[in-house]
What does this fold into?
Amino acid sequence: MEDLTSLLARFPDGLHGKRLHAMGAGGSGISAVLRLARERGALVTGCDAAMTTMARALGAHGIAVALGHDPAHVAGADLVLTTPAITYPHPDHPELTAARERGIPVAQWQVLLGYLMRESIGVSVAGVHGKGSTTAMLGALAIAGRLDPTCEVGALVKDWGANLFLGHGPYFINEADEFNYNFLHYHPRLVVLTAVEYDHPEFFQSYEAIREAFVRFLRGMDMAPRPGALPPTLVLNADNPGCREVLERLGAWPGEVRWFGMEREGEGAEVEMRAEDVRAEVEMRAEEVRDDTETSFELRWRGEALGRVTLELPGRHNIANALAAAAAAMALGVDRTLLAPALSAFGGLRRRFEVIAADDGVTFIDDYAHHPHAVALTLGTVRRRFPGRRVVAVFQPTLYTRLARFLELFSQAFDAADVVVIVETQPSRERDTGLVHGTDLVRAVAARPTFVARPDAARYGGTYAETAALLRALRQPGDVIVVMGSGPVNQVITGGEG
It folds into this structure.
């Protein structure tokens, strides 16, 4: 596999006229990079096992994506791009084998993204939670501030109708994923760190291991002296202990550190970007009948009121994302008077608490939550957003290793639901070895104090089509059905077909 150094050596003059072929081209991250490569003059083709939304979008932008894999696809390519979802379960994939036999270099798409960022001022958003939403928010603020950035996000941003915003300014804003040390291919000048906690148990053996990965990433930032330019900058979440630990392990950090958070005293005393007068997750009182459908707050920078923000995306976690984006935008020089209006105008991302109304009074929430913490946050937000309504949680675990390692935490995450339906596990880059099954999670949920008196409230749905049929039988007028997972589990909303 190629790394950034070897890619720079192979293509010292850029990609113009070079032929790139991508396996798994319809993925949420790789598809943005392919569009960007085409803009830089590369001749791009791709293939995928399914014609995803992103694959169809590539076709609309003139990038041919073939359905299915074939060794003939790599013929004449100067570079073959792939993803961990292909290389991990299929290291001897016929297309990869054909590339190796023909001497064609192969690289993960994140390496190419690092290559494409090399002549820009990199701004990377990292963290176990919220990095996609924060990246898109920061992109929106930079656009409002007329910085004309290029911005790559691993999800479709509604305001752009794409996962990529092509700008011509000096800044390149990207979502930096920690899995597989993917973010080590980027060397940004500014890093936003949203949260550090244990995740990706299939790759990192412990919390300490993932924490050290973030430390390595920050140590690889662009620290070169650049008089008059943006100094090396960290934007950190003061409310997250993991962020504080990462900074401590960096030692004497020579750049700037900017904190954001919602705590008002104690450890949060140095926080520059704050949310005050928060109207979200308000506890209901008997004498106060209130449908709390607003997520809003007063944005303050160093004590100065910058205006009230009302977010399209609900929940305190999205307030934290907005604060992260605002703090980073200030560091980039965006006029602070623009922050509150631009955050309020931000339209959100696909599959991030996306509300879909059905004709029988049922409300679907389509959400990307796939970590126990994120599942619990999403369901808690639903409870407060739709008080008094029955909440049906539909969840698809991703990766057998993750489900096995986090089984107890996942079972606890559904306490705010009335009914829980578990969809068959999405293998992603793993194979089913019998380690764990979705019915194990059903039993663990049914044993929780919340469900023990009504074990039928925890169900196994099976395939997408089977789950969709079960939902049709279970649903009642007024239900809020929350569909969660990182895979295409939202198929159950439309009947179980992709």
Q: What stands out?
A: Residues 120-345 form a domain with the UDP-N-acetylmuramoyl-L-alanine:D-glutamate ligase fold (CATH 3.40.1190.10). The chain has three domains: 4-108, 120-345, 354-493. The radius of gyration is 23 Å.
